Amino acid sequence: MIGLPTGTRVWVVAGITDMHCGFQGLSAKVQTALDENPFGGNVFIFRGRRGDLVKLLWATDDGLWLLARRLERGRFIWPQADSGKIFLSSAQLSMLLEGIDWRQPPRTAALSML
Q1: Which site from 41, 47, 61, 69 is most exposed, i.e. has the minimal number of CB atoms within 10 Å?
Q2: Residue 76 and residue 98: Cα distance in Å, rounded?
């Protein structure tokens, strides 16, 4: 995973996104549906219908990044909302990209009692 600068906000875009969209389509969705600036340095994460593919849109000083991640097995954990956005921490983003349930990861204290 590329290290994000301190203060970068990570947003999960709720609902299903057409994964045929590229830079322009995803940027337009950020502007219209989320009322956010896609070039503001935040990371926006979109998920396709099957749930095994996500795309990340991220603007840096160098330009706009479009990153894709596909799971060979399993699905990405996604919020149930049909629209809107949810803020994630960098740690939660790492878990999401690995296919781990980022909403309620088990704590080590709970694991040691098993």
Answers
A1: 61
A2: 8
Tokens of 89: 């921490």
Question: Domains of the chain (ranges plus CATH)?
Answer: 10-112 (3.30.505)
What are the helix (H) ranges across the chain? 23-32, 90-97, 108-112
Contact, 95 vs 88, CB < 8 A? no
d(CA 53, CA 68): 7
DSSP annotation of 73: S
Pairwise CA distance, residues 13 & 56, whole Å: 10
| Residue pLDDT, tens place only, 101-114 | 887 767 776 555 55
Query: Which of 92, 89, 88 minimizes the C-alpha distance to 105?
Result: 92
